[in-house]
Amino acid sequence: MAIEKYFIPDFVELQRQSFFNFLEKGLIEELNKRNPITNNQRDLEILFYPEHYKLCPPRWNSFDAILLSKTYACRLYVPVQLTNRKKKEIIFKWIHLGDIPLMSKRGHFVVNGAARVIINQIVRGPGLYFSEIQYNIESQKKTLVRRYAAEFISMRGTWLRFSIDKEKMIWAELKKTPKIPLIWFLLGMGLTEKVLFQSLTQPKRLLSSYLNYLKIDNCLIEAQSQNDAFAKRSFFRQLIKKSKAYDSQQTGIGEKKKKNSNIRQPVLLHDIYIDNQMSKEKENRRSDDEKDKIPQYANSSLKALELIYAKITNTKKITTMNKKFFVKQGQKWIFKKFMNPRTYDLGLHGRLSLNKKLSLSLPLSQRTLTMYDVLVATEYLLRVEQGLLPTDDIDNLKNRRVRTSSDLIQMQIGIGLLRLEKNIRSKFLTSKFIPKLQYFFSTKPLNGALKEFFGTNPLSQFMDMINPLAEMTHKRRLTSLGPGGVSRDTATMDIRGIHPTHYGRICPVETPEGKNAGLVNALTTFARVNPEGLIETPFYKVYQGQVQKNAGFFYFTADYEDKAIIAAGDIHLSKTGFLPRGLIPARKFDEFNKVGRSSVDFMSVSPLQMISIATSLVPFLEHDDANRALMGANMQRQAVPLVRPEQAIVGTGTEARIPSDSGHVIRTKVGGLVSYVSSQKIKIYTFMS
User: Fold this and answer.
1) What domains are there in the chain, each with its CATH number?
2) What gap in Å lies between CA 132 and CA 353, rounded to an integer?
């Protein structure tokens, strides 16, 4: 039978594994993003070969770096190729790009002789999130109207949101830019009006503002035939016919047409505003507010791009002279904001999240927004509005990702390489003759970016070295603060509170008192972070009432755990591993019920699973008030180590693991039998393989 305390993972594994992933994949990924660098004429090209990079052995080891007040780092060399197409020459050389700080085996960095720890940041992961917005219509009666929004969150680039306002109009919103009607944005992304009408189950919803304004009832698709492609096509044809009929009416000359010129046809989508030929009486009937609310209709991508650029630049008149210019500029603006991989990056996690949520099968290398993303997101938003699909809970851990030390260093190296690329491009312009390859490169951009990060970033902190426990908890800390996170002044109780998905992942007890309460947390004893940045916790499989301990641990993210019925970890089992007969207390997401043993899917691994390392050292924790337990867990980190350490009178069983994993205790490379101990040496006998 498995004994859980022997399966507690290495406490510093999170830091070490993340840095290993950075050296194995992250560094190569960042260098590949800058490949190739060319000049304007495209006759000179610099190409990196990041898969073959080399790290030289560090000049000082971690111990000497502390004594000499130096940085424990190693030189990064990358093979680089310069291609000159004019002279048909290829120059190949190993280039020193900069110095990469190395992590010690204890999970920290040594920068200028000081031990520093990079704290793990937990933030809203890149992807697509749907939320509910409540509007007050009448201030006295306080009547609330529910509307919905979809937000695209990226690793790097522009924030984008599709929102429905009080009047049920749908807009695309960006920061520091006027909001754009969604139909303009969809057409501007490359979709056609025909595709929109055929793909969306409710295409009339995008046009509702125009249809209501023109009082068109006879062209709407019936509710029964909303999913019928033929009905949508016929609706589309009707709109085109009626708009053409209106055009011919306006351009025709004749007495009858002059007499009937004041009578407006029931449909005209592309001409929402009142024509100049209409009488002043009709013009005065409509208020200025109403005119502003209804944007101009676009029925093609070119028209949409033209209107988008006019809206951004606040141009009210579009002439035939500047039409083509507006279309070109609109295309450039859309490309720069959402389709250029150098300015907009969803990241691997963002693309995985979008593919999963919208049931798409786009390649993981596609890190920018596509027309399919925005089209399916629009369909999803319309279904959320109808109540067919739920909104997202942002506090759920399936929607939050952990940025480990490797992710933060990788982002900083990306900034350094971007600066290096700018330097190279400027040297391409200034140099009249083709110099040596070394002329283009300097170590300043990369080293400067890393120095900035370790010196000024709030997530890079001096290691807490009062005792081994303080050091360990510092390396396993999770914070919502810092760049890209929340502000401690504006954070609400929803963000600070405990969520059902925190079970086995984030400790509900250990958190600071004061402003940072609930924003700075600790990882639990058994939890780990997977490559996607999601926190996982282990469970035992239960099959027909029998706990399958020999099958090992099953690690689950919060997404999978929602659907499972989980029994507590301290239930007494029979000798054959069966759960007791009768009703057993079990949990399904946030509901606690008593169920039969055959209904249980999984069982928690240990009672220690839901608390952190520091909290697990508090004896009889279940009898304490939560506030006092919080103080006890925090104050253990402030204890000064004794000259002659003594064993705890009342212990919990995890005391030995903390100094062992922190690196403060002498550890052998292999296990064995201790045969001799003195002040000078320790002899260990082991079986050599």
Assistant:
1) 4-119+404-462 (3.90.1100.10), 136-251+266-397 (3.90.1110.10), 493-626 (2.30.150.10)
2) 20
Cα 446 from Cα 98, distance rounded (Å): 6
What phi and psi values does residue 78 have, to the nearest 5 degrees?
A: -130, 135
> Which tokens hold the place of 113?
């002789």
Q: How far apart are CA 515 and CA 531, in angstroms?
A: 31
Query: Which amino acid would we find at residue 449?
Result: A
Helix axis angle for 301-312 and 323-334, nearest 10°, is 80
Q: What are phi and psi of 632, to 5 degrees?
A: -65, -45
Averaged pLDDT score across all residues of the chain: 83
Of residues 183, 147, 189, 410, the one with CA closest to residue 296: 183
- Taking only the tens place, the pLDDT of each residue in 268-290 is 333 333 343 343 344 444 444 44
Answer yes or no: are the C-beta atoms of 300 and 187 closer than 8 Å: yes
What angle do helix axes 405-430 and 444-456 make, rounded to 10 degrees?
Answer: 150
Q: What predicted TM-score, i.e. pTM, was given to this entire model? A: 0.82
Q: What is the pLDDT of residue 206?
A: 79
- At 172, which amino acid appears? A
In tens, the pLDDT along 463-473 reads 999 999 999 99
DSSP string of 221-281, one letter each residue:
PPSTTTT-HHHHHHHHHHHHHHHHHHHHHHH--SHHHHHGGGSPPS--SS--SPPTTS-HH
Half-sphere exposure for 113 (CA within 13 Å, toward CB): 5
Residue 495: exposure state from Cβ atoms within 10 A (0-12, 13-18, ≥19) = middle
Tell me the two tokens of residue 381: 């938003």
Nearest residue to 170 via CA among 196, 139, 190, 142: 196
Of the chain, the percentage scoring pLDDT greater than 70 comes to 85
Number of other residues whose CB lies within 10 A of the CB of residue 507: 27
